[in-house]
């Protein structure tokens, strides 16, 4: 049986819909808790798939959170060896940093549901199903696009929303994995961030999720299944 290791930074930001897709593909999942578990490049490099999940810290805060250095090195090892790797939000930023690119505050907070604009490459990718749909954004940082990456999606506020490298690496700044029924945990865990973001509050996030999550859930399940299928193919 194939094994996926997921690095989790806060407990409620888990694999969600991606976990369902992995189970459906017969992949066994193991979590590693950032800040608690060892994140050695050799061990993480042995997994069939590495998933780096989101979290409310900056990649550039490795002086405050020393485990980030090991995490970045493990991702660099996997990308250099073309090993299957998926990064979500903070995970996407770690992938960019591992490839030598700058990660920094974008100057705006994208928090809530809104569409992304697919590039030409994005419309030819597994993300094509996102055309016309709103996704869940929850970030204030951005990154410069890696040289070898295919740019897949943008928004007006943040140009680099998704990229791919070959068929083995996918980075998503937004959250396709979030399950609508479990978002209440996000509203609790990120209460301070929500309160500090003008124009957004928990009732509004609930309204947006009720409107957009059902269609996105269908698309996200297919996207994850298609991407995993391409890895095994």
In short:
The chain is an alpha/beta fold. The protein has helices spanning 17-24, 41-45, 67-80, 90-98, 120-123, 183-189, 191-195, 202-232, and strands at residues 3-8, 28-33, 49-52, 85-88, 103-115, 117-118, 134-143, 150-154, 162-165, 169-172. The strands form two sheets. It has an eight-stranded mixed beta sheet with strand order 2-1-3-4-10-9-8-6, sandwiched between helices.
SSE layout and pairing:
Layout (H helix, E strand, L loop, with lengths): L2 E6 L8 H8 L3 E6 L7 H5 L3 E4 L14 H14 L4 E4 L1 H9 L4 E13 L1 E2 L1 H4 L10 E10 L6 E5 L7 E4 L3 E4 L10 H7 L1 H5 L6 H31 L1
Parallel strand pairs: 1-2, 1-3, 3-4, 4-10
Antiparallel strand pairs: 5-7, 6-8, 8-9, 9-10
Helix pairs in contact: 1-8, 3-4
What can you see in these coordinates?
The protein has 233 residues and is an alpha/beta fold. It has one domain: Rossmann fold. 36% of the residues lie in helices and 25% in strands. It contains 8 helices and 10 strands. The strands form 2 sheets. The chain has an 8-stranded mixed beta sheet, with helices on both faces. A two-stranded antiparallel ribbon has the order 5-7. Helix 1 runs parallel beside helix 8 (202-232) and helix 3 crosses helix 4. The model has no long low-confidence stretch (mean pLDDT 97).
Rounded radius of gyration (Å): 16 Å
Largest sheet: 8 strands, mixed
Order of helical and strand elements: EHEHEHEHEEHEEEEHHH
Alpha carbon gap, first and last residue: 16 Å
Which regions have little confidence, pLDDT < 50, spanning 5+ residues? none
CATH topology: Rossmann fold
- In the CATH scheme, the class would be Alpha Beta
Any idea what the shape is?
globular
How much of the sequence lies in strands comes to 15-25%
Task: Return the structural class.
Answer: alpha/beta
Report mean pLDDT, rounded to a whole number.
Answer: 97
What oligomeric state is this? single chain
Q: What topology, given as strand order, has the largest sheet? A: 2-1-3-4-10-9-8-6
Strand element count: 10
Number of domains: 1
CATH H-level superfamily title: Class I glutamine amidotransferase (GATase) domain
């Amino acid at each position: 049986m194939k094994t996926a290791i997921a690095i989790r930074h806060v407990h409620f930001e888990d694999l969600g819909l991606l976990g369902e897709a992995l189970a459906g593909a017969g992949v066994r999942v193991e979590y590693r808790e950032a800040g608690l578990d060892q994140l050695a490049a050799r061990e993480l490099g042995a997994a069939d798939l590495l998933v780096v999940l989101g979290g409310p810290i900056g990649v550039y805060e490795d002086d405050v959170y020393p485990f980030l250095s090991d995490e970045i090195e493990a991702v660099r090892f996997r990308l250099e060896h073309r090993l299957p790797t998926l990064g979500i939000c903070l995970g996407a930023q770690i992938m960019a940093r591992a490839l030598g690119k700058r990660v920094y505050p974008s100057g705006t907070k994208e928090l809530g549901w809104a569409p992304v604009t697919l590039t030409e490459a994005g419309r030819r990718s597994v993300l094509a199903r996102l055309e016309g749909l709103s996704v869940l954004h929850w970030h204030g940082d951005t990154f410069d696009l890696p040289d070898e990456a295919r740019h897949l999606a943008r928004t007006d506020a943040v140009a680099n929303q998704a990229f791919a490298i070959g068929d083995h690496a996918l980075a998503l700044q937004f959250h396709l994995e979030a399950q609508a029924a479990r978002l209440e945990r996000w509203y609790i865990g990120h209460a301070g961030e929500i309160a500090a973001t003008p124009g957004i509050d928990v009732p509004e996030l609930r309204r947006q999720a009720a409107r957009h999550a059902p269609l996105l859930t269908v698309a996200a399940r297919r996207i994850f299944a298609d991407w995993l299928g391409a890895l095994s193919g």
